[in-house]
């Protein structure tokens, strides 16, 4: 990786962002698979932990769905993931339809969180916080330039 700034400046952004997305998601999914999960499972558990006892299946699906890209999976599969977590008893549904993390769900989320930190460190190896923040800043400007929403996620 000894290319000049001029050489790198000619590279197509769509190619590199797509390649990065695919490689990173593949790496993350491999880590989740060790626990029988996908990234969608993690997203649902993580979102529910922030809204435990205050959200329904529909509400949780609505929170998770915007983060699901084709590489992560089909957006409609989010409902199946929530059902899977209920079947595995990681999530319970109270009589009023609200979702709750069970003890099993909290334990599974805690195990996954340890692994997520390891995976994040692998992905960020050799990249300073300043470089990472600068890269996100550039990507957010490009997103805004083409009419996308550069806001930070919820």
From TrEMBL:
Q: Which UniProt keywords apply?
A: DNA-binding
Query: GO MF annotations for this entry?
Result: DNA binding
DNA-binding listed as a keyword = yes
Q: Which InterPro entries match?
A: WH-like_DNA-bd_sf (IPR036388), WH_DNA-bd_sf (IPR036390)
Name of the protein in its database record: DNA-binding MarR family transcriptional regulator
Source organism per UniProt: Herbihabitans rhizosphaerae
